[in-house]
Amino acid sequence: MSEACLFVIGATHHNAPLEVRERLVLASEGDIRKDLSPVAALRELAVLSTCNRVEFYGVASDLSAADSVQAAYCARQRFDVAEFERIRIRLTGRDAALHLFEVASGLDSQLLGENEIFGQVKEAYAAAQASGTAGAVLNRVFQKAFQAAKHVRTHTGISSGTVSVANVAVELASNIFGSLAAAKVLILGTGEIGEGTARAFKSRGAADLAVAGRRQERAAQVATGLGAGIVHFEERDSRLADFDIVVCSTASPTAVLSASAIGKAMRKRPARPLLVIDLALPRDVESSAADLQNVFLYNLDDLAKIAEANRTAREAEIARCRAILAHRADGLWSHVQPYLASGSGRGPESGGRTPGAAGHAAAP
Amino acid sequence: MFADLTDRQWLWCAAGFYTLGLLMGTVSLLRGQRASGVLIYGAILAGYLLQFVGLGVRGHATGGCPLGNRFEIFQFTAWSAITLYLVVGVTFRSSVLGYFTSCLGAALTLVSLSIPAWDAIRRAHIFGGNPWIELHAALAIFSYGVFGLTALTSALFLLRHFSLKSKHLGGWFSFLPSILDLDHIEFRLLGTGVALLTLALAFGSVYWSRDTATVGHAKLAATIAVWAAAALALGLRAIGRLLARRFAWTCLALFAAALLSLIPVDDSRHPETVQASERGAP
Questions:
Q1: Global pTM?
Q2: Which of A102, A226, B7, B183 lies at 20 to 30 Å from B150 by C-alpha?
Q3: Residue A312 falls within a domain, yes or no?
Q4: Cβ separation of B179 and A305 shorter than 8 Å?
Q5: A51 an active-site residue?
Q6: What is the ipTM of this complex?
Q7: Which residues in chain A touch residue B169, judged by CB atoms under 8 angstroms apart?
Q8: What are the DSSP calls for A93-119, one per residue?
């Protein structure tokens, strides 16, 4: 009786730069599953394919199945095997489980602690279940990965704070207005950074956006793209009182919003705070506006510092997260390993499915 | 077993739960984690129920609402603030407000329990069997509890304002509610407090107009001063003349003034007294 094993093989952003990952993107997960169906040793399989990684999690009756997966994958992608071996990750046993825990927790992500990966791992698992290739071992490993990821996200600061300037701006607005659904946002300037920030506001529920630009046709174009209204640039001072959040990113060499104009607007709406985000260089807003009551003025440096502080805070949590995940991976492995070593028909979960039934049914 | 507990023992247990909420929140904040809103809310709820029992036992013994001495007034004020928190806190969804409320509850109850002189003399039947006077007193102290919660919300507002102006948004500042939510709740709470105090004074004035000698000048002046200051702050806020930080500081000062006004209020009463030792209090 041979000893079964858990493995992961693939490539991630750590060793594969963008231009390489472009060549590694799976066009169709179904095709690779078909390619792998003749690999008899492969009992279970899950494929995690995102813009930052392609990983194959497998359970096999012997480790040669991992090489078969690699060969089939490289053949399908027309990717040189030797080159793949230089950039790949290849982990087995407890290390493979720990890797999945870290991936699901956002610890292995390019943007440390990001949440999107959790949903992507869930989708990969759901796809494996739907195609019948998730058996007793992968079920256990993925479910434990989800639990571990939820635990570290809840009990550590790995996901706290945001680390991009646009999202920091949105977070800042939430600290002032709570829900952004009723907040009115004015985008002054039609540059890429202003547009990106506007999209971030929209994605967080801000529904009432308006764009003002020095070039009217460009402002109209951006407004159409955002589903926003248009404000004439010359009317920006008189219309200022209508808005709660102003994002400035013009290329103007001088300030386009004076402290006196902001003060005048505030007199029309004294009880409602005004958040002014100045993303322009040179700055679009007179810095003395920060002294006005109920006005909160943040410039590009302020936002960058907050993003950097959040990133540092997240990085400070890495060791703690790794320790938690390693402990959980050890716990999981103490249940899974005896089952894999015995090759018995009983799954790692109490009353679990027989590996033969799961494995044969699951074999791609 | 519980039937043998005296009113003060119930109130000590209540103070213990408020302190537990305070400790849980402090530990979480020191660890840089968000305090568990459910756990803190649970601790406050347990303390509230125990305090309710303790005040009930005391009220039964004194034959009316337990507002006969400084100890009872402080206890009732804490209980009033927490009554409102238990209603508001659910919608507020802020474990930080729960933390601050447990601070207020623990401070008021522990201070009053730690000063035996405040409870050395208990006045029984202070309302002379007149339910309107009892309602007047209960509403007035309840409104002070509401001012207490307003002061807590104001403290949160000032912290959030500081974090936004100084651009420090991380750490436990990140657990604070939004500044606009805090401002709205501050305003509504102050409105509720003023409405309750107005009602209390309306009930009291009917009784007072029949016999003006029953209320001391110091009590009258202190109570009307607190009401006038609160009503003025509310009015100025409503017309946009008292905003943001100044409004928050005013609410804090108002609660301090309300607490201080309890001294002349308490000193002005001299009805039938009962020594604590006579009723076997610990």
A1: 0.70
A2: B7
A3: no
A4: no
A5: yes
A6: 0.73
A7: 161, 171-172, 175, 306
A8: HHHHHHHHHHHHTTTTSSSTT-SHHHH
Nearest CB to A176 within list B174, B180, B240: B180
pLDDT at residue B64 greater than cutoff 90 = no
C-alpha B126/C-alpha A154 separation (Å) is: 53
Q: What is the DSSP letter of A38?
A: T
Both A140 and A42 in a single domain? yes
Characterize A342-360 residue by residue with b for buried, 16 or more Cβ atoms within 10 angstroms of its Cβ, and e for exposed: eeeeebbeeebbebeebbe
Q: How far apart (Å, rounded) are the C-alpha atoms in residues A167 and B25? A: 28
Distance CA A336, CA A353 (A): 13
- Mean of all residue pLDDT scores within chain B: 83
Query: Looking at the predicted structure, is the pLDDT value of residue B30 above 80?
Result: no
Contact list, A176 vs chain B (CB under 8 Å):
164, 178-180
pLDDT in tens, A116-162: 899 999 999 999 999 999 999 999 999 999 999 999 988 888 887 77
Claim to verify: residue A121 and residue A175 sit in the same structural domain: no
**Residue position matching structure tokens 């799961």:** A358
**What residues make up the domain containing A226?**
165-307
Phi-psi region of A254 (alpha: psi -120 to 50; beta: other; left: phi over 0): beta
Task: Closest CB to A176: pick one of B170, B174, B178.
Answer: B178
Number of domains in chain A: 2
Partner residue facing B180 (CB), from A172, A273, A298 = A273
**CB-based contact B120:B70 (threshold 8 Å):** no
Q: Which of the four pLDDT bands, split at 50, 70 and 90, describes residue B19? A: very high
Q: Are residues A55 and A174 in the same domain?
A: no
Distance between CA atoms of residues A114 and B46, nearest Å: 38
A278, A307, A336 — which closes off a domain? A307
Tell me which residues of chain B have a C-beta less than 8 Å from any C-beta of chain A: 32-33, 160, 163-165, 167, 169-170, 174, 176-181, 183, 240, 243-245
CB contact under 8 A, B167 and A302: yes
Res. B91 pLDDT band, cuts 50 70 90: low
The last residue of one of the domains, among A285, A307, A329, is: A307
Handedness of CA A298, A304, A307, A308 (dihedral sign): negative
Bond into A364 cis (ω within 30): no
Q: Which of A51, A74, A248, A321 is catalytic?
A: A51
Look at residue A82 in the predicted model and tell me its pLDDT. 95
Q: Is A305 on the interface with B (CB under 8 A)?
A: yes
Identify the residue among B94, B179, B190, B234 best suited for mutation to test binding to A, counting A beta carbons within 10 A and taking the highest.
Answer: B179
- How many residues make up chain A in this entry? 364
User: Is A172 within 8 Å of chain B by CB?
Assistant: yes
Instruction: Please indicate whether, in this complex, the C-beta atoms of B240 and A271 are within 8 angstroms of each other.
Output: yes
Q: Does residue A328 share a domain with residue A214?
A: no
Residue A20 belongs to a domain with what CATH number? 3.30.460.30
Segment holding A211, helix H or strand E: strand A208-212
- For the domain that residue A248 is a member of, what is the CATH number? 3.40.50.720
pLDDT in tens, A192-220: 888 888 998 998 889 899 999 988 889 99
> Among partner residues A172, A271, A290, which is closest to B169 by beta-carbon distance?
A172
Taking the CA of residue A313 and the nearest CA in chain B, the distance in Å comes to 9
